Amino acid sequence: MSRLVGFTTVRVGGEAETVIVKDASALKFRGDEVVIGRGSKVLISDKGLGKVLIMRNVGASVRGNLITAESGTPLPLLSRIAAESGLSGLEWACGIPGSLGGGIVMNAGAYGGEISDVLVSADVLTSRGRVTVSAKELDPTYRKMRGLPHGVILSATLALTAGSLEVKNLMRLYAEKRRASQPSGHNFGSTFRKIGGVSAGYFIEKAGLKGYAVGKAHVSEKHANFIINDGDSASDIRALIDIIKLKVYAACGERLTEEVIYLGEF
Prior knowledge:
Radius of gyration: 18 Å
Number of strands: 20
Shape: globular
Oligomer: single chain
CATH topology of the largest domain: Uridine Diphospho-n-acetylenolpyruvylglucosamine Reductase, domain 3
Distance between the termini: 20 Å
């Protein structure tokens, strides 16, 4: 049994039976395992989980304008590989602390781009075997793939476009924007989804919640859609999320929806 604290960007989580997957070629999936990548959008209960597959299978190959990569490949690394290959379409991913598999599950995106814009297909291991699912079958929507079968994403193929020096320039611009607007510390990235194209941070700030804390978790003073964790309690973070939702509805009449996935019993 291992504590899951070190496998999430928010740095909380109880114990579980962990399997770190570096080579997915012989992986078996029963159907009851929890699968995580870099853990950037998950809140794991202090009570822990059962069996957890932690995807650390990393690798990518480029053929023309196509990149095929393993699901554990970090999105910033994939973005750099694309740029070095003169390909455009993943510049927005240069600062996202997740993996390709997690990015597909969440249909990750930033700065007007998202993974479904470039996704061709994904190979998924289910309890019945391996299947290849096209991007259309995955039925992408905002921060979700509605048609994703229950299983483990093993790899995916992305179709990009021929770029130029502007690709690297754009990546530098996005990196500078992130440093200027987003806080450091243990966090999920954005905690809540946009509402009608407006950042949830706008409503959280309007509700007067910058700096609001529960235990050692607090709303960032720099960007209100970020929760910073300085403690070791998933329950405190969950309580803070629930309070933010209630107070934003009371102050603004808007219902926030989490980007964060809850795992385990709260």
